[in-house]
Design goal:
Layout: E1 2-3, E2 8-12, H1 15-18, E3 19-24, H2 28-37, E4 43-47, E5 52-56, E6 64-68, E7 74-78
Antiparallel strand pairs: 1-7, 2-6, 3-5, 4-5, 4-7
Length: 83
């Protein structure tokens, strides 16, 4: 897994096409585990204040951007996968 610095979130180029699900979970680790267990998930972001975990499909480099978040506790993670 790759992990961003704090204060960032994922902004997909096509939210409806790439968004998989949104859940409340207790930690960044739990959010990462949820993404890892979903075969379609490649990208997730987690807000430690709201405990919101968002899961996305697609390639983080070509399917969106990591952008600054209004929350200092938001981070983005992505699965490493071999091409």
């Amino acid at each position: 897994m790759n992990l961003s610095s704090p204060s960032f979130q994922f902004s997909p180029i096509n939210y409806q096409a790439l968004f998989l699900s949104q859940i409340n979970t207790k930690s960044l680790f739990s959010c990462a585990q949820t993404c890892h267990s979903n075969g379609n998930c490649r990208i997730f972001d987690f807000n430690d204040q709201s405990l919101l975990c968002r899961l996305f499909q697609g390639n983080i480099i070509t399917m969106g951007s990591i952008v600054p978040s209004s929350s200092p506790q938001s981070r983005v993670g992505s699965k490493k996968y071999n091409a």
